[in-house]
Fold each of these.
Amino acid sequence: MLTQIINAKILTPQGWLKDGSVIIRDNKILEVTNCDLAVIGADVIDAKGMYVVPGGVEMHVHGGGGRDFMEGTEDAFREAVAAHAKHGMTSIFPTLSSSTVPMIEKAVETCNKLMAEKDSPILGLHLEGHYLNIKKAGGQLPENIKDPDPNEYIPIVENSPCLARWDAAPELPGAIQFGKYCAAKGILPSIAHTQAEFKDVKAAYEAGFTHVTHFYNAMPGFHNKREYKYEGTVESVYLLDDMTVECVADGIHVPPTILRMVYKIKGVERMALITDALACAASDSDKAFDPRVIIEDGVCKLSDRSALAGSIATTDRLIRTMVEQVEVPLEDAIRMVSETPSKIMNVYDRKGSLAKGKDADILILDEALNIRCIWQMGKIIENTLF
């Protein structure tokens, strides 16, 4: 099947291409061009001067559509993925909160199976825990949290070809060795739920922890111990120029002013946007998978209001937050939900930008930043344009 999108403002890796067209053959981008001449045999779609941009690549999301990836079932995975896809997420790394080994094994089995399907939007599994600092547990299940144990994590890694990322607090006993092992296996170790100071963060970075989970959340900033002052995880991460970060850009987990500071210091190339969404995202439900969690003020919280517990955000909300509240250029907001996470997760060879030969994951946005049409691997899955 041949499709041509014409009359578009196209975001390419080189910048905006005005009055251009994107040609799709089956599930791939055949060409991106500034020529609007109709291609013989193509189904022509008029973008009406709207923005044509790459689809979102979600590297940290727990669920959606009323389902949570911790359920581990095919139905839960499919329904959560489909719910987020309708909001501009065309590729996904399903995320498990701190889980038991049987829960991880069940999710791995499902993830392996679904990734093997043709044109699957699932790119790999992300484990957020359970090797976290209990003092920064936040919405994580405390009964599952423990120190890294090679007798546990080595068999999991060896039997989980789908595993793409695993988070940990680097100050825990054995965490540096854990990070080295994951990095050697091609799995991204990421700093999360931590009380790490500079020496811990630097050691972690040198061991392979090149990324930071939901930056600013569940980690300390500049602080005092009695009369002396110490850098927190936040300042330590800023000092390491090449360390990448992700932020929950719902305007609540991290205030717009702080999102702007991250953007100014880390830049588009090292700042990814995530939803960290729970099951209630992209859903009519007001209930989270975790009974301890409530929805209030447009965000998920523990019921005692001691911590945020996740978001109800979707990809389109991330884009609008960054443009309307943080006041970054649209092209940068798009890159931070597509190009940057693709590069961090090592899938930029096929995802994250509109270029010849890449997967046909494409969004059309109007001037109000509403998503009007979505192609996922060349198939239209949402359309209010025509």
Amino acid sequence: MNKYTNFFGVDTAKSEFVTALHGQKTTNSFANAPEGFIAFADQFQEQLEGGLVIIETTGGYEWELIAFLNGRGIAVHRADTVKVKSFIKSLRRFGKTDAIDARGLAMYGYERHSSLTLFQVTEDKQFHLQLLMRRRDELVNMRIQELNRSQGPLSKLLPIASSFSNILAAFDSEIDIVEKAMQVLIESDPIYDEKKKLMLRMPGIGEITANKLLALVPELGTMTRRGIASISGVAPHPYDSGKINGYRRTRGGRPDVKKALFMAAMAACRTKGKLGDYYRKLLERGKKGKVALVALMRKILVILNGQMRNLLTKGGTVLLV
């Protein structure tokens, strides 16, 4: 068990971050920039040695601060927003200010530190792959918005028609550039390349889905079937009480992974192979279509997890059975 002498909560925003040291009522505000990082480290140099800093995810505004703290050997936990909000509500603190959030994060670290994992900002291929996939999704979403606008009732007017065409072409070009960069990165690494080839053998999985799973589920092959299903959001959670057996539902997990698995399952359920048969048998047993589809999503993920484990342990190509 890690033992820390102090616990800091840090609420980050675009221009500043607010810190709270557990056990103290006062909070401090610093610029979310290199000079602010240095000021924070200098002011609390003694407390940060052997301390744990809890930083909530805030759309990327926390990355530079985490990298700075990592560089100084300071332990950092990047907290899940949902968990932290639930924890703060359990303390019956219903107000919402940066100072309240920072103190709540400090308390969260103090009470939960034994089970919290440390976060490291890395510059490895996995991190780059995640950034490229995130950028691709952003571009695709913006293209969809522009495409919808281009189909509006006034979109054919001469003053703006060419603008829509030019912007859509620019999005297509940028998406292509990002996808090629992802492909180069994957092919440059023998393990990534083998993992992707393995995924593409799975019915229902194409280039985009394979890239998403590579980028967003690096744990494939390193966890149990239940664990990988849980972090991906396709594990059924019980809802039982006394004599009542409630309806089991999936919840939580990584939304983008669930979307990718949904698209894979939609394609796989129409095939004539084992996955298609599995889906149809569930329907024959009276399962609702949505329930059967989620079960198929979980089936695909569990099969991939097992195959990835074989690939990583044996170091060879594993064929889909």
Amino acid sequence: MMAAITAAGNGHDVIVCEKNEKPGKKLYITGKGRCNLTNAVDAEGMLRSVMSNPRFLYSAVSGFDSFDTMRFFEGLGLELKVERGGRVFPQSDKSSDVISCLEREMRRRKVTLMLNTEVVSVEAKDGTFSCVVLQDGRRLYADACVIATGGMSYPLTGSTGDGYRFAAALGHTVTDRYPSLVGVRVKEDFVRELEGLSLKNIELHLKEAVQPYTAPGEGVIPKKHSSSKKKDVFSAFGELVFTSDGMSGPVVLSASSYIGPLLAKKPLILSLDLKPALSEEQLDARILRDFDEMKNRQYKNALEHLLPQKLIGVIIRLSEIEPDKRVNLVTKDERRRLASLLKNLTFHVESLRDFKEAVITKGGVKVSEIVPSTMESKLVSRLYFAGEVMDLDALTGGYNLQIAWSTARAAGLAIE
């Protein structure tokens, strides 16, 4: 839609082929239906949040940055607001209002929108784009084509990897693809006991595992539960939620951007620091104070001030301190073991969750085969790309939609 509006604004007759019954179907569900349409940062801040090929985006983002996006939508009558972390939303909290703006502007610029129109192939002749072939066999001939099909995430919205197939058939390289900004499955069975538990103000560390995970006996929690000594691949402070087989939530979604390619090569762990504001020594002192106040209580009944109820049973078993032991008899070594556990609660990564749950796709059309200033193919002239179909992805927070706006704008302007 952005590419169409831009090209039409340059005096071109534009057709949008949309295989769904309405445009913007994936946009409709972004930001939990509120549409986090960009992030209020400058170009440099934007590129720092791009995970794959940020240098490729420099020209496109410099030419149309987050503030240009905000001005564009405000110019279409959409009131915006900036929330925590610079996330930009429509004032109405309705993604449908963003889509309506784009539809109105397409109509104003006389863009032809063909709904329920699936493209099955994109064809070239003598190294130049020729036509697109529709499912009913019709061919649409044009001077230029922009492939803006998205990736493979949320396939029910129409993102079924069509653009990768089109690009590959025309000679382009498509890199390995992984679900990204998605929940993670872990190997520890006891995570089921934590399902639904949300933890705020924790610190997550993604690391390479020192040794492969060894499954314990049925119903047993592994005894050795210490964090890897390897350097962090990624770390973040914030919120997560446990699922039936792993974790999700903001810090986990961000970590998932790194996991896909790495997990194919090496085992990974997620280590949670449940008390990041305290050093291990400070946490030990805090535990000692709590135990002093509850000196006649059993250990299993003495963690309520320290941990959410759902986590207590798991921590008691992992700490290997006798549950019925009175806290005034808990030794210094046992107490320190508890503190270390709370600073390094470790999970072994099993896999990422599926594309159908992923916010975005990591991987895509190789950007070295695309001109960064125009988004034109280096292999097929008059063929352009926009958005997630390329090997471009970013962290959560509106950055991925900004990639879409910036690259679509560059493509739309470049078409002569």
